[in-house]
Amino acid sequence: MAEIILEVQNLRKFFGGLRAIDQLNFVVARGKIKSIIGPNGAGKTTLFNLLTGIIPPTAGTVQFAGKILNGLKPHAIARLGIGRTFQNLELFGNMTVLENVMVGRHLRTKAGIFSAALRLPQMRQEEKAAKRQALAELHFIGLADKANFLATALPLGEQRLLEIARALATAPQLLLLDEPAAGLNMRETAKLAETIFRIRERGITVLLVEHDMSLVMEVSDEILVLNYGRKVAEGPPREIQRHPEVIAAYLGEEA
Amino acid sequence: MAKKDFYPLLIIIAGLVLFPLLIRGNEYFITILVFWGINAIIAMGLCLLMGYAGQISLGHAAFFGLGAYSSGILTAKYALSPIWGIIWGITLAGGIAYLVGKPTLRLKGHYMAVATLGIGEIFYIIFNELIPLTGGPSGLSGIPLLTIGGESLEGLKFFYLVWIVLLLLLIFSLNLINSRIGRAWRAIHGSELGALTLGIDVARYKLQIFVLSAIYAALAGSLYAHFVTFISPSSFSLMFSILLLMMVVIGGAETLWGALLGAGVLTLLPEYLRGLEDFEVLAYGAILMVVLLFMPRGILFAIKKMLWRSKE
Q1: A79 → chain B, closest CA residue
Q2: If pLDDT is split at 50, 70 and 90, which confidence band does B14 have?
Q3: Does A173 touch chain B (CB under 8 A)?
């Protein structure tokens, strides 16, 4: 049995009477690609917001690499090694592509206000390294030639890639991808699948929320199916495709 | 500091060197340029807060006033050395910015504007009512001039002091902008959610820039008190907070250079309009409206755009 990197226990999130996440239990094994699927409103993005500390859970615990995340601020969770992208992009539109990724190096650099203001040698070294690492991430994702573009000048597909590069720059152990294929064409989606594999090759565990079923079936080691905040099924892609409840709830009768 | 900032810096330094030759001891002009420098120091801090970190303040006149009254009271009433006035002013303004910033910086947009407006009003009332210390509405006089090495700083000498302080703060600020800290501020401006998930302690960085901008304002206030030697609450009213905000917006909040230019324009403009007498305020308002309508990103950006066009 592989090492568990993320363990969710009895997790609940109620918004008033709405049970967005209800009694959810699952684990993610280190180095795997796990997908979360489910119809709109199933609680997928809510789950990501819970995992990254954007919203507190009503009950239950999230344990990451042996640490309980409950009560931690989002920036502290990012520091522990969880990176994420957003379904509705949260890029820094006022900054260049390179600068966006350099912000990702923020939590792995240290310069304080005085060493930055006085440009002390240590800070300059760190700055150079941050730039080099950010460029390396842009090469990895395939946007190096657009490093000096404004982030908002990129087409949607490349903006999604930029968010991934930015999250990778934080050197995460676990990367949460929230519908990275939304709005991409077929060629871009195929390239995205290959990118997700390359991310796993770097030893980074991937948790993927996605509507594009062919992408999910292609890349996932394991799939978790949510509906109304509850787990409907969990298992490898082959099993999920044949699961009667999943077919009824999500894939549609004709499947 | 980035390479593109190098030439504007050279121009300022050249201007400072050539300045005495150009004005030939015209005291009036020196005074105006001292005010430009003082206003520019505050505008620079406010530009970091607004243009870079995306937070608004309608209360910076209070921090300016805290610096001015700290220097004024400690030197005029207690005969302490001016340096203590400056240190105390910076500490007090920074401390108060920290205390009020902690709860208010959670607010966004209009709410933050209203909260800081309240802070400005509170201190305006304190300056007016704390008569034993501030002298109340009739003001505080007898503030000594600054002296360095036994020489009191007046006119041209004070001008140099203000502009050298400005220059140092400018370099300091440009360095900050081009560092992980400046990028964190701009990231918060771009998307707080994005910044948070990249590990930026948003609350901490907002507070940091708020305190820093208050310190800039307080330092400017101390310089102001030692220059005019008489201060009264009317200089630290809401009107001045709004004027500071206008400097940043009119010049162009996107860069520090815009804020410097805006401080210059709004310091010089009233002087040039003085000849219009009763119509001064009218003309002033009209000019500001035209600038905001036709140059929404500020004068500096409009000039840059014109230069690009003429190149093509």
Answers
A1: B199
A2: confident
A3: no
